Amino acid sequence: MCGIAGFYNFNLSTEDKVHTLRQMLTRIKHRGPDESGIYISKATSLGSVRLNIVDLTTGTMPLSNADGSLWIVFNGEIFNHIELKEELLAKNHSFKTHSDTEVIVHLYEEYGPEFLNKLNGQFAIAIWDKNKQELFLARDRVGIRPLFYTTVGDAFVFASEIKSFLEFPEFNPKISAKALSEYFTFWTTLSANTAFEGVFELPPGSYMTINANSKTIKTYWELPISKPKDYKYNTLKEASEAFEFIFTDAVKLRLRADVKVAAYLSGGLDSSITTSFIKKITPDSLRTFSIGFTEKDFDESSFQNIAQDYFKTEHSSIICSSKDISENFKDVVWHSEAPLLRTAPTPMSMLAKSVQDHNIKVVITGEGADELFGGYNIFKETKIKHFWAKDPQSKYRPLLLKKLYPYIPQISKANNTVLKLFFGFKLNETASPIYSHLLRWHNTSRINNYLSKDYKEAVHNYNPIAKIEKQLDAKFKDLDYLTKAQWIELHFFMSKYLLSSQGDRMAMANSVEGRYPFLDHRVIEFCMQLNPDLKLNGLNEKYLLKKLMKDRLPESILNRSKQAYRAPIQSAFFSEEMPPYLDAMLSEEKITEFGVFNAAYISKLKKKMILNKQVSEIDNMAITAVLSTQILYDLFINKSIPKLQESDLVILNKTILDESVI
What we know:
The chain is an alpha/beta fold. It has 25 helices and 18 strands. 48% of the residues are buried.
């Protein structure tokens, strides 16, 4: 795993290019602390910092094809690179290394952009074609690995993380009001936009070509959707057999490494399934990791202990307190590079740090199972509300909603009237393509009320919910409600929030590579062809997985109630142990200085949180959004980070100067 950075059409001296690229790479050296390298030509410059996982000795980047006409830097893993290399050897390609990076550049040489369809992996790729004088960028199908780009003057600049751009001359970011409006509605942006104006992400499943005449983006893979008549798997038997075969291979491929591979074991169904398959493939000792909480409402340690005892793994567990969250929150925002509405990324960063402390670089996790097998409560909620909408006056149907949120007292203890007020939002609009998420987005959008007058005016004519509803109306025609809800969750929330803020960013902040067998593209395509009843059977989520794993997991884990992964907010940010920096970020002085939020409104919210008077989930999200945005502004707009010194810069293990600059 690595971090990459580079630029095109940056007309400065070779010395300045080298220095700029080293600075950009230094900002992301956490992604690859083992070694670094650069390639400099007249038109373009490429660089990488590398976390050595495959081919520890000869895989140093940048790498080229045999005649040096193609140069590559690469962040990720190509899990089927062994098979692809055999295919290329049969076509008379020759190799100097054992790395998957070199396989990619030869694939590009042989097939052009079509090679992306052959890859099973998670990746962000940059290739410079000297003959065409063209830069090629690509990203994996679901966006596991990040890739951002911007323009500064005439220069095109790209990197694995936005913080690299802070080291590019004359890059002066600005917070986007439109992006904030989207973050404070969807938890992320709708498109390729980021929190910063003029900074974009290359969309998942896409590639870009840049040359002197054009910049084009093309899609090579889209999230598949099936109409009822097209469901391929309708029986439990055929679906179980197919999944067993595909998932076994997905796990087997992700165990490939020249270093030790560990796993997260959270005590939930998803991580228990991945651990079970790992143990089936390699019965040897397995290192597993988990995190618990001092606050019992968030803690799952008892289930983690059951899982560890069942699998007999070599297990390490850490405990997260509210103080841990507040002390680490600034660093989490720095690595997330986006406003956050939850503190949940912080414990994930701590967990990755525990993995790093045990000298392990690779960990397998269960991300994606909830999205693909109907595991989230939002899917059950949608099913209940469709049922309720058939008899809107029913006294009993809304009571089903109380079963979904036993950990939220305002819901679990609510009476019928309160449930109707809260969940009955637009109950007559179940035909809307985005009905499943309307209530969530409507409630979250209240955070926009805390924006300052200037930021509100900047988006006063912008309705992001209406925008997405219009976009999806035709696309979702004739789809069942679960498929619609899953597509929205997978397309928007998983890639742009979950995999970013809780996945890649928190792991790589600690130089740890996460691998996700549920996000193997073959598993995704399989799941999107399942009959919905095999995912959500009644209100029984992950039905196929539970049936498949019967007698292969402890009953207490197999049939435990769904508990959403959450972390403390109020107790983390409003205690006597609140770090001075966070306290300052919420001060009237800083709120007014940055100008993003209304200082009077934030003051009232703070008082409510301190007095603990009927604090709601929206209040918790709002204060997290405000604090994270303030930190983001301070770090990226105010540039309050320490300037890099010469002694900080990465050591270049490989420097390639093209003949055009020699």
